[in-house]
Each structure stands twice: as C-alpha cells, then as structure tokens.
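Narrative of activities, Objective 1.

The group set out to show that a structural description can be obtained from nothing but a protein's sequence at a throughput compatible with the screening campaign. Below is one input-output pair from the validation batch, recorded exactly as produced.
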Amino acid sequence: MTAEQAADGAFAVEGWDEMGFPSDEEPSEVEYAAADVWYEANKAALQACCEGWPEEKRLRAFGLELLTNPEVQLADRDTALAKLRALTEEEDGRGEFVNSDIGMLADALAVDLDNPRDLIAALTIAFTTLELSGFHPDEPIEPKRQAVYNAIDALEAATEMPTSH
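Output recorded for this entry:
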C-alpha cells in the first residue's frame, strides 16, 4: 500500500466522521483498511520520534502528514517568509484558483506556535482576496496586497525567536 492510499483512507474515515456518519457515505472496507495502515504508521512514527519526551510535549506532537510538496511543506522560516512575499508580489489578481502553497507555507512557518489558526486564517483570507480581486476590477488591488503583507508580518512577528543577550 502506498502512503497516498493510506492517507486517502484516513481522509475518507475522518471526512465521514466530520459529516456526522451518514449511512450512504460510509467508507469502504478498503478505505477502512487503508486508514488502519495510516493510523498504525502514525502511532509508530510518534512513538519513535517522541521517545523520552515529557508528556506535555508529546501532547503537542500531531503525527504524520502526507508530503505532496516537500519544498513548500518543509520550508524553513526564512524560506517560507521569502516565498510568501514573492508570491504576494507576483500576484496580479486575475486568478480564478486558490494557490494552496500559501496555506502550506503558513503552516510550515507557524509549526512551533501553540495556536496559529487566526494568523494562518488571516493570511490565507487576505491572499485569497488578492488572488480573486480580478472579480472586482473597480476596486484597487494594492490595498489587498498590503493586507497580505500585513498578515505575513504578523505571522513573522509571532514566529520570531527570542535572542539571548
């Protein structure tokens, strides 16, 4: 079984849970089996990587994530910030599709934050507004671009590592 098949199985089971377990949407036996492989791999990975960690730190470990774009998903802080700013600068507002790299870069950047949801949401919403600004051609695009930069700056400030003096 591939990692993608196992992740798809887990996605199917978790999606069914989030939908409230509708009987006509129940995952197949193959999806259940694939999900079990994903969950067992997750358990083994967490056990291996968290060996010797204090319990409070173990509770913050999330587990496996399928890497579909490692260059983006595993970007270090400086690279993620640079890519976010470059994507913002390049955006012309004529897109019809949302760039998933924005959310993945924000996630990579905020990996060590306790509760980054609001910061990530602010960035992705601002970028989506910029991306789709072509649907409102009478509105100026630059204030939307500035809102994205402001959201990036807020995420950067929140992830700044304190320096020792």
